Amino acid sequence: MASKIAVIGDINGQFPTLFPKLATLHSKNNFAFILIVGNLFADPSTATEEDEKNVRSLINGSIPVPVTTYFALGTNAFPAPIIDALESKDGEVCEHLFFLGKRTTMKTTEGIRIVALGGQLDPNIIGGASKDKYPPYYGESDAKILRGATTADILVTTEWPARIRSRSKVEFHPTTEPGAQECLAELCAVLKPRYHFSTSGDFFYEREPFFHTPSEETDGLYPITRFISLAAYGNLSKQKWIYAFSLDPTASHAVSVPSGTTASPLSLPDKKRPAPQDRLVYESSNRGGRRPNKRRRGERRGPLSAADCFFCLSNENVATHLVTSIGDHSYLTTAKGPLTRPDTYPELGFPGHLLIIPLTHQATLGGMEEEERKATYAEMQKYRASMNAMLASVASHKYGSVTWELSKGSLPHTHWQYLPVPVDLIRKGLVEAAFKALAENLHWPKFQKEDVGDGYGESSDFFRVKIWDAKDGSEKSTSLVMRFDESIKFHSQFGREVLAKLLRLDERLDWHDCGQTQEEEERDVAGFKKAFEKFDFTEEE
Ligand SMILES: *[C@@H]1O[C@H](CO)[C@@H](O)[C@H](O)[C@H]1NC(C)=O
Ligand SMILES: *[C@@H]1O[C@H](CO)[C@@H](O)[C@H](O)[C@H]1NC(C)=O
Ligand SMILES: [Zn+2]
Fold first, then answer.
1. pLDDT tens, position by position, for the chain (541 residues)?
2. Which atom, in ligand 2's list, is nearest to the CA of 234?
3. Ligand nearest to the CA of 359
4. Fewest Cβ atoms nearer than 10 Å: which of 40, 221, 311, 413?
5. What atom in ligand 2 is closest to the CA of residue 201?
6. What's the rounded Cα separation, in Å, for the pair 122 and 140?
7. Is residue 282 included in any domain, yes or no?
8. Which residues contact 518 (CB under 8 A, 6 or more apart)?
9. Residue 76 within any structural domain of the chain
């Protein structure tokens, strides 16, 4: 369904007159939401007392915002009271007014996917990605990370993409040309948004729509991007500061070149395109019985297809005798070459190292369609909770559990690994400390105590751990997450390595060294199934 949207450029603190105007427009147009892509607030370093009073009035609700409005980070820093409000109210300034975020990927309730990168490029940002949420600067890695969103309906950037005016016949006589960045051109080329919005102070600029070259990825269709840069509100030059349009996120792309469009200015034919991200053919293999494929020179790169994937139940080569339970959206299997031995936990009598795997062949949970993602995450949580309940019952709360996941766009098929751990190690904080210590040794980013849920809000690759401390009936568990980018060579056995060291099972670090005969595997599966029977929610009569 199409939604009406209005997009606005810089406001520079003039919102006391703007919002009443928007209320009138909204009553006639019934906007789904409004997007402010420039500076909502005056620059704090030059703000007047009047500006400061207006900010207070906005926060205390005496300047009403008529409809859901998202505002981007522009070139100005935010006033301090706004940052306080955003921090204490989780991104909300007052009713209907929300911060879009500096580097963000979001989907509105109308199903419209918005990707935004606010601020100006600061080539000096350490590590290439900006750590701070509010200062109006970003690094090249921020743009790279956003490429992981793969598509967008609306892209919002403070600066222009490089070369955007090439191949265009639109007249252009600005006094000053806005800053333009190569990394934003690349981002736009990858996301192929239907609309790309930016701002340009005292003038309005709308380029002819341009099409992206059809490819396998676009199903041979021609995605069209409209680049529109808005003037500031209340500008004396009377240039366009608001742009209203209807958007249907489900509309399909054009089957041929639409008239009035140009080829993409972002990928000039004589310019070498950046190499696609290096993808590993098969990085994480805990079952299936073959060593990671070393890619030969010249071999085609690309993620593994479902037919070759050892996590896809649809693959006929999958070791189905390890599968212990199949749900509607995920399934449970004992690990091939488990870290623990059948006698590591005498109360159990089986290793207890399991994998919870989505039925969908997808690199990350966050990459799944919304409905599928929510249902899959909920069922994986249910499997985890059921196994926790089983541990409590079989071993009278002697064991807690650790569940870990590597969410990485270049892997073929996401999954969780689950392992019981003596509850003492958890209660003394040793499990948490072990993950943190190895990460620190490797000079990787710090773990945050945070629950990223189904991962949809995450724009980067991450590694997460859920630790359950065996308290009965409590689903309360510690959740840790480490976000990382391409500068980190994350190895897929990190979680196993941490636990191997902690449990003094160093010699079992590599799963290839823990091979079992099929007979042994079947015995362990039978032991697990017997203990899990009562807790398996898929086994209802
Ligand atoms: C809101 O803040 C403004 C500016 O400080 C002040 O004049 C006004 O009285 C406040 N209104 C309420 C309801 O607190
Ligand atoms: C209009 O833009 C010019 C150039 O950016 C600026 O000097 C002027 O203050 C703006 N006018 C208003 C009313 O914002
Ligand atoms: Zn798969």
1. 899 999 999 999 999 999 999 999 999 999 999 999 999 999 999 999 999 999 999 999 999 999 999 999 999 999 999 999 999 998 999 999 999 999 888 889 899 999 999 999 997 775 555 668 899 999 887 787 677 677 899 999 999 999 999 989 998 888 777 889 999 999 999 899 999 999 999 899 999 999 998 887 788 899 999 999 999 998 778 899 999 999 999 999 988 888 899 999 997 443 333 333 322 222 222 233 333 333 332 233 345 665 567 887 755 556 778 888 888 888 899 999 999 999 999 999 999 999 999 988 889 999 888 888 999 999 999 999 999 999 999 998 899 999 999 999 888 889 999 999 999 999 999 999 999 999 999 999 999 999 999 998 888 999 999 999 988 655 668 999 999 998 888 988 999 999 999 999 999 998 888 988 889 999 999 999 999 999 999 865 4
2. 13
3. 3
4. 221
5. 5
6. 8
7. no
8. 321
9. yes
| Residues 354 and 495 grouped into a single domain | yes
Residues 511, 375 within the same domain:
yes
User: Ligand 2: distance of its center to the CA of 232 in Å?
Assistant: 7
Do both 438 and 511 map to the same domain? Answer: yes
Q: Confirm whether 288 is domain-assigned.
A: no
User: Which ligand number lies closest to the CA of residue 17?
Assistant: 2
Ligand closest to 52 (CA) is 1
Give ligand 1 pocket residues (Cβ under 6 A). 53, 56-57, 60, 62
Tell me the residue length of the chain: 541
User: Is 9 close to ligand 2, i.e. is its CB under 6 Å away?
Assistant: no
Atom 3 in ligand 1: which residue has the minimum CA distance? 57
Is the beta carbon of 162 within 6 A of some atom in ligand 2? no
* Beta-sheet strands, E only, within 200-346: 205-206, 210-211, 224-230, 242-247, 262-263, 323-326, 330-334
* 358 and 256 fall within a common domain: no
Q: 227 and 344: one domain?
A: no
417 Cβ partners below 8 Å, 6+ apart? 286, 335, 353, 354, 355, 403, 404, 405, 495, 496
- For residue 168, the tally of other CB atoms under 10 A from its CB is 17
Shortest-distance Cα residue to atom 6 of ligand 1: 57
Residue 239, classed as helix, strand or coil, is coil
How far apart CA 119 and CA 102 sit, in angstroms, is: 7
Residue among 202, 237, 240 to mutate when testing ligand 2 (max atoms within 8 A of CB): 202
- What are the beta bridge partners of residue 210? 225, 262
Q: Specify the residue for token string 């071993």.
A: 395
What's the token pair of residue 237? 């030059």
Q: Are residues 324 and 265 in the same domain?
A: no
Ligand nearest to the CA of 174: 2
Ligand 2 atom closest to 202 (CA) = 2
Q: How many CB atoms lie within 10 A of CB 414?
A: 26
User: Are 265 and 324 in a shared domain?
Assistant: no
Regarding the beta carbon of 202 and ligand 2, being less than 6 Å apart is answered yes
Please tell me whether the overall predicted TM-score, pTM, comes out greater than 0.85 for this model. Answer: no
